[in-house]
Write a structure and sequence with these properties.
This protein is an alpha+beta fold. The protein has a domain at 55-106. It contains 5 helices and 7 strands, in the order βββββααββααα. The protein has helices at residues 55-78, 82-106, 129-151, 160-172, 178-194, and strands at residues 3-8, 11-17, 21-27, 32-38, 45-50, 109-114, 120-123. The radius of gyration is 26 Å and the shape is rod-shaped.
Length: 195
């Protein structure tokens, strides 16, 4: 699978894997973004985040909604000012929308792929957790391959110490193991002696 389409209420995300990068399209009521992340810009750290923010908004705007509903009912039943009643009705719609949005934000759960220059976020249950996790694993594998290809080859413009630091970085993020580290280190040492 090279494409993942996600939907969470009023937000849509599409991730497409290419040979060298991930193409991302994010659309919501507030955003319409298209951007890309090359595999060598991504990290390998996967974090599961269950957000519990926005409950204060629900309480505050819930109180405003109750007050506005009461005022709307009173204005319509008293028959005193219909303009004011419709104004209150508009307030009910507005506060109800803010409450709905806050509740959705409160219950969102995401996977965050971090550790690099760019961060990707995925809705956990869209389409389902197994599919999302499998897609993220594909990205992580492509990122590993890309980093290994770029940082394990001899570069005559880099010092031996810089290339050794690159190898240590790959070892620290588990792209290469100790045996590969030692093998590649010796190959680089030989090439630097020949240079």
């Amino acid at each position: 699978m090279t494409t993942l389409k996600q939907k969470y209420y009023l937000s849509n995300k599409t991730f497409e894997l290419t040979d060298r990068k991930v193409l991302i399209v994010e659309k919501s009521v507030f955003d319409d973004k298209e951007w890309e992340a090359r595999y060598n810009e991504l990290g390998l750290d996967l974090v599961k985040v269950k957000s519990r923010e926005g409950i204060g908004n629900v309480v505050f705007f819930g109180g405003l909604l109750i007050l506005t509903v009461f005022l709307t009912f009173k204005a319509f039943t008293d028959g005193t000012d219909y303009k004011l009643a419709f104004f209150f009705l508009l307030g009910c719609f507005m506060w109800g929308t803010v409450i709905w949005w806050s509740i959705q934000k409160y219950f969102v759960s995401q996977y965050v792929l971090a550790g690099g220059d760019k961060i990707l976020t995925f809705f956990i249950n869209s389409p389902d957790e197994k599919t999302v996790k499998g897609f993220i694993d594909q990205i992580r594998e492509r990122t590993r391959r890309r980093l290994k290809d770029e940082l394990t080859h001899f570069d005559p413009d880099l010092s031996f110490e810089d290339q050794l630091n690159n190898l240590k970085y790959l070892k620290n993020i588990d792209v290469i193991d100790q045996e590969e580290f030692e093998k590649i280190r010796e190959q680089l040492r030989e090439k630097h002696l020949i240079k």
